[in-house]
Specification:
The chain is an alpha+beta fold and 115 residues long. The protein contains five helices and three strands. It has one domain: Winged helix-like DNA-binding domain superfamily/Winged helix DNA-binding domain (Arc Repressor Mutant, subunit A, Orthogonal Bundle).
Length: 115
């Protein structure tokens, strides 16, 4: 009785192995949250105003007039920027003061470079 030949898998050496994704799922999610926060013109303006403040911080009461938006809307935008890790919030009495998180703008550049 004849034995059947053993078949070996064919390996295509002309193609490169699949590349691993540069971003994992969790990192892609957090990066997207930062870019989503920056995707709104009002939030970009808020970042610009806070960054330009002489004291390095801005009271929410001073941010409504330049944007011509109500305080609840401005607070909503600020919360998104805080949640994205771009602004720091400090409560003082009835007002909240916002400042840039140290290194946040540099981190955005690094996120872009990592793509």
């Amino acid at each position: 009785m004849s034995s059947l030949p053993v078949l070996e898998p064919v390996v295509d050496t002309t193609c490169c192995p699949p590349a691993a994704p540069a971003l994992g799922a969790a990192e892609a999610q957090s990066t997207a949250a930062v870019f989503k926060a920056l995707a709104d013109p009002n939030r970009l303006r808020l970042l610009s105003i806070v960054k330009a403040a002489e004291s390095g911080e801005s009271c929410v009461c001073d941010l409504t007039q330049p944007l011509d938006l109500g305080q609840p809307t401005v607070s909503h935008h600020l919360k998104i920027l805080v949640d994205a890790g771009l602004l720091h919030r400090e409560k003082r009495g009835t007002w909240a003061y916002y400042s840039l998180v140290p290194g946040a703008l540099e981190r955005i550049g690094e996120l872009l470079e990592s793509l």
